[in-house]
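Hello again, I could really use a second opinion on something today. I've been puzzling over a protein and I'd love to understand its fold better. I'm sending you its amino acid sequence along with the backbone structure tokens. It would help a lot if you went through both lines with me. I've dropped the whole record in just underneath, so have a look.
***
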Amino acid sequence: MKVRGYVVPKQGILDPQGAAVERSLPNLGFEGVSGVRIGKIIDLAIEGAGLTEEAARAQVDEMCRKLLSNPIIEDYTFEITEG
């Protein structure tokens, strides 16, 4: 199974990289852009004999909580596809 995870700063958490991009866009001629948040995408594959989508979801959720994100300051979502 293929997994794509998305990790972004929680609302209300300072995002200095997003703020820098938002301030720079008007200088490049892009007006009216706001709310820029910079995050990360994590791609991985999970394999295992008899691994169900439900078990994979539980495993990925635990990975996100324990390592791939900082649940105090970041939110995460993920999607699982066959392949």
